[in-house]
Design brief:
The complex is a heterotrimer of chains A (385), B (179) and C (290).
Chain A lengths: L10 E5 H12 L3 E4 L6 H10 L6 E4 L3 H13 L4 E5 L1 H17 L3 E9 L5 E5 L4 H6 L8 E3 L4 H18 L2 E7 H4 L2 E5 L44 E3 L13 H16 L2 H4 L2 E4 L6 E4 L2 H16 L4 E6 L1 E3 L3 H10 L2 E6 L5 H9 L5 E5 L8 H13 L1
Parallel strand pairs in A: 2-3, 2-4, 4-5, 5-8, 7-8, 12-13, 12-15, 15-16
Antiparallel strand pairs in A: 1-9, 5-6, 7-14, 11-13
Chain B lengths: L5 E9 L4 H14 L3 E6 L9 E9 L11 E6 L5 H4 L3 E10 L12 E5 L1 H7 L6 H13 L4 H11 L2 H19 L1
Helix pairs in contact in B: 1-5, 3-4, 4-6, 5-6
Chain C lengths: L42 H14 L7 E5 L14 E4 L5 H11 L4 E7 H6 L2 H10 L3 E7 L2 E2 L5 E2 L23 H7 L4 E6 L3 H13 L4 E6 L3 H7 L5 H7 L4 E5 L2 E2 L9 E8 L5 H13 L2
Parallel strand pairs in C: 1-2, 1-3, 3-4, 4-8, 7-8, 9-11
Antiparallel strand pairs in C: 5-6, 7-11, 9-10
Classes of the chains: A alpha/beta (385), B alpha/beta (179), C alpha/beta (290).
Chain lengths: 385, 179, 290
């Protein structure tokens, strides 16, 4: 995209999906494996253009499953890797996402949400993958899911996703709706010098003593780079610190707990959220993506009318910012969860509020975004009720 | 959003009328004046023939809500596109329609201008520049962007071989209103 | 290290005498032994041939990546002292593609089986062949899903009994080599485990080949498939391979099969075509004027 004339060179007009690609490049992504799918294809298209310029590799694989596999393969080779998809493609990637979690392979998966289930509405926005992003792959597992709500934030959160994935050795999902993905907005990209990027801990020291899945104090094992002499084994089977499989109950409990704790114990560093007018809010809205933007407008309109409404916008959808919610909900009279699905995030909010405050939702799954007026109307209804 | 904060523009019609490109030209023009522009389009699987719209939410800072909610400037190039904007046209909005393609324009607390947009494009030798003719007319009616700024943006956005054609088109549209 | 698990010490001189004697223990993770393969399974012979070829080519273990899928063949990677990746069912070629693109300096070998490679992973095989990335794919064909208890596979012979063909298999099978060749594989070969030296030589040729090479190994599942079909015990099954092959070297038949409709062996196809990664990088540099 050409810079907007007359402004600083960093200010530019950029589409959400393009911002994602540029964020990935800035984060150090050097391998992209993907498969075309609406409404995420612009990410692959932009990566195919950008990667050769930085001596990276773009490959369009034969299907969604192969894309996820190649992305993991690239990362196992030591290169920051990404794939991007939507709805049906996200479903197809789930098994290999699980492999990435089990084998602790850093990578980034973008899911631009469209209407579902199945082929659903390819070109219409939705937020129906909240629970799939958390629980899409089988078995007990941790996950990190980031959910940007603006073009600018897609850029930033894609970088953040790489940093988290490298730090915690885990696939990180960036989840946003088609409305944000296809929005073209005026954004100010940071100077590349000011972008903080994180690289995974590499194994160092003698190969003889090296245990590939023995964690450091932070619960995260350093990663071996092929060619550095460690010659380790990577498997999707439940494995010991040696990397080799085990089915001994005590061992399985230990290694699987470590996998779960590695994220759970770092919640404070991972959880991100944004608050708007929450200090004295009677009506607390919890929303993400384009719905958070509508809620932001609605909160401002409600405040103009003297209604004490506030917005908690989770940026990390998973792990959900639990403490922040519980604290705010403790002071609120109502919690309102607008979302473009039949009621998914609300399940988590109800679980966390545990009956301490009434929780209600606004739900749309007709391919249309929730409008500020709809949120305002509900705020007024709750305020009068 | 009040007009002092910003305003909303919609270009609507059918697929293939170049409304996305028109939106891009307009956004480039407004951005060049330091404004923030959030552009969204209806995004349909069929690239030709279906209902199409291109929205611009214009503001001094990043808009809280980036999608259109109340239109201040509306272009309609096909009667089938009327329904998508009904109920969201602001009071005193400027509504510009093609007098042949939209014979029965919407009415309300807003001013409707019916002009020979497509006919002007044909007289220039290319029906496909109706979008750019319309932009010229819209900025003349709306007074939110100077013709010079628009011309500079068109040069920036348009591939060289079409630049002159588009510059002629925007000027022709502008003069439709001026005369 | 469990020395007693492998009592036999077989030293084999390299064929051209250029390398030290091949000692398989140098290439295995012996502390994982005893291995989990059934007695008589052909996969061990195939793995030995592969390691022997790697030895004779003087490929450094640190630069060697073995990527496998799921099934009996999938478990083999764990026993090799190299960078080993036991991936998901059917996907080793796709993982290997990412690995090789990220690390063209590594020797990437895929070990897969007939179910892994031709059924669940069939799409990846044809596209790996088409792309011609420099990967060697060793497909162990034992005509059955052994790990899951003996179900029919895409290569199960007609009328054979499996747990999901209790009345005998009536589905036609794949000719994996014809499939790979048709999809564009630039090196295709097949060998039986009976002829271990020929198998090793074939693998060696595949490893040297620049581009996608596909080697099908006719390997016996004695415990499950053999027993279910009264094919005899291991020695009988291995010996019967002799009756069902049509050896071919560089396209020249030197022997006739004992039975009709049997497998051709040897190098079945070898062509030169640009290798994917080198071609991609060269093209990008050319277009970008680097």
């Amino acid at each position: 995209m050409s810079p907007v004339p007359g402004n600083s060179p960093q200010l530019q007009s950029l589409q959400g999906n393009q911002a994602c690609a540029l964020g990935a490049i800035a984060a150090g992504c050097r391998l992209f494996a993907g498969y075309p799918i609406t409404p995420s294809s612009e990410i692959a298209e932009r990566m195919s253009k950008e990667l050769p310029r930085v001596d990276g590799v773009f490959v369009q694989m034969e299907d969604e499953i192969a894309s996820m596999a190649a992305c993991l393969g690239g990362s196992l080779g030591g290169v920051k890797s990404m794939t991007a998809t939507s709805g049906p493609g996200f479903s197809l990637k789930q098994e290999n996402i699980g492999y990435g979690i089990q084998a602790e392979i850093p990578c980034v998966v973008i899911n631009v949400m469209r209407g579902g289930p199945s082929t659903g509405m390819p070109t219409r926005p939705a937020q129906g993958d909240v629970m799939q992003a958390r629980w899409g792959t089988h078995g007990d597992h941790p996950i990190i899911v980031l959910t940007p709500s603006s073009v600018q934030e897609i850029y930033q959160q894609t970088i953040q996703a790489f940093n988290f994935s490298e730090t915690y050795r885990i696939p990180v999902i960036v989840l946003y709706d088609e409305a944000i993905g296809h929005l073209v907005d005026t954004v100010e990209l940071p100077d590349p010098k000011d972008i903080e990027t994180t690289d995974r801990k590499w194994a160092t020291g003698p190969a003889e003593d090296y245990l590939p899945y023995a964690p450091d104090k932070d619960g995260i094992p350093p990663m071996p780079r092929p060619g550095d002499g460690y010659r380790t084994h990577t498997t999707g089977l439940t494995h010991l610190e040696t990397g080799f499989p085990t089915q001994v109950p005590d061992d399985v409990t230990r290694v699987t707990s470590r996998l779960l704790d590695k994220i759970e114990n770092h919640r404070d560093e991972i959880e991100q959220y944004e608050l708007l007018s929450c200090g004295d809010a009677d009506i607390l809205i919890v929303a993400f993506g384009i719905t958070a933007r509508a809620s932001e407008r609605a909160v401002n309109m409600a405040r103009d009318k003297g209604i004490k409404a506030g917005l908690l916008r989770p940026v990390t959808l998973w792990p959900f910012p639990e403490k922040a919610l519980q604290e705010l909900a403790g002071h609120a009279k109502h919690v309102l969860v607008p979302e473009m699905n039949a009621g998914q995030l609300i399940l988590e909010i109800e679980r966390l509020c545990a009956g301490s405050v009434p929780v209600s939702g606004i739900n749309r799954f007709d391919g249309e975004t929730i409008k500020p007026n709809e949120v305002l109307a509900k705020i007024e209804e709750l305020n009068n009720g | 959003m009040s007009k002092t904060d910003g305003y909303e523009i919609r270009l609507s019609g059918t697929g293939g009328q170049g409304l996305g490109l028109g939106g891009k030209m307009l956004a480039a023009a407004l951005s060049s004046e330091g404004l923030h522009v959030a552009q969204s389009q209806s995004y349909e699987p069929t690239s030709r023939g279906g209902m199409s719209r291109s929205d611009l939410v214009v503001s001094r800072q990043t808009a809280d809500y980036p999608l259109a909610t109340g239109l201040d400037y509306l272009l309609i190039l096909d009667k089938r596109a009327i329904s998508i904007s009904e109920g969201m046209i602001n009071k005193d909005a400027v509504v510009l329609v093609d007098e042949e393609l939209v014979p029965d324009p919407p009415s309300g607390h807003f001013k409707v201008h019916a002009l020979p947009l497509s006919r002007t494009a044909i007289s220039l030798g290319n029906l496909r520049v109706t979008n750019v003719v319309s932009l010229g007319a819209l900025i003349a009616l709306g007074d939110f962007c100077s013709i010079e700024t628009m011309e500079a943006a068109i040069k920036q956005v348009t591939p060289k071989k079409y630049a002159q054609m588009n510059l002629d088109a925007v000027r022709a549209g502008y003069e439709l209103v001026q005369h | 290290m469990v020395e007693s698990a492998m009592p036999l010490k077989i030293r084999q001189k390299s064929v051209d005498g250029a390398r030290d004697e091949f000692e398989i223990r140098d290439y295995l993770r012996l502390d994982l032994f005893p291995h989990f393969l059934c007695p008589g399974c052909g996969h061990g012979i195939a793995l030995r041939a592969l390691l022997w070829a790697i030895h004779d080519l003087d490929i450094e273990k640190d630069q060697l990546a073995i990527v496998s899928g799921i099934g009996c063949s999938g478990r083999l990677s764990a026993y090799v002292d190299a960078n080993t990746f036991h991936t998901t069912h059917g996907r080793p070629l796709a993982f290997a593609a990412g690995l090789k693109l990220a690390r063209p300096d590594l020797h990437v070998i895929v070990i897969t089986g007939d179910g892994d490679c031709l059924a669940i992973g069939g799409n990846h095989l044809i596209h790996a062949a088409r792309r011609n990335l420099d990967i060697t794919c060793i497909m162990m064909n034992n005509e059955v899903y052994g790990m899951t208890g003996g179900q029919v596979s895409p290569t199960t012979s007609l009328d054979r009994f499996t747990t999901t063909t209790p009345m005998g298999n009536q589905e036609p099978g794949f000719d994996a080599c014809a499939l790979a060749k048709g999809a564009g594989a630039t090196f295709v070969g097949r060998e039986v485990t009976l002829q271990t030296t020929a198998l090793k030589n074939l693998m060696q040729e595949g490893l040297v080949h620049k581009g996608f090479s596909f080697v099908e190994v006719i390997s016996d599942c004695t415990e499950i498939y053999g027993r279910k079909n009264d094919l005899g015990s291991s020695p009988e099954m291995v010996l019967s391979q002799k009756r069902s092959v049509l050896p071919r070297f560089d396209g020249t038949a030197v022997d006739k099969p004992f039975r009709a409709g049997n497998w051709e062996t040897g190098i079945l196809s070898r062509q030169e075509r640009p290798e994917y990664y080198s071609a991609y990088r060269a093209h990008c540099h050319k277009v970008l004027g680097k």
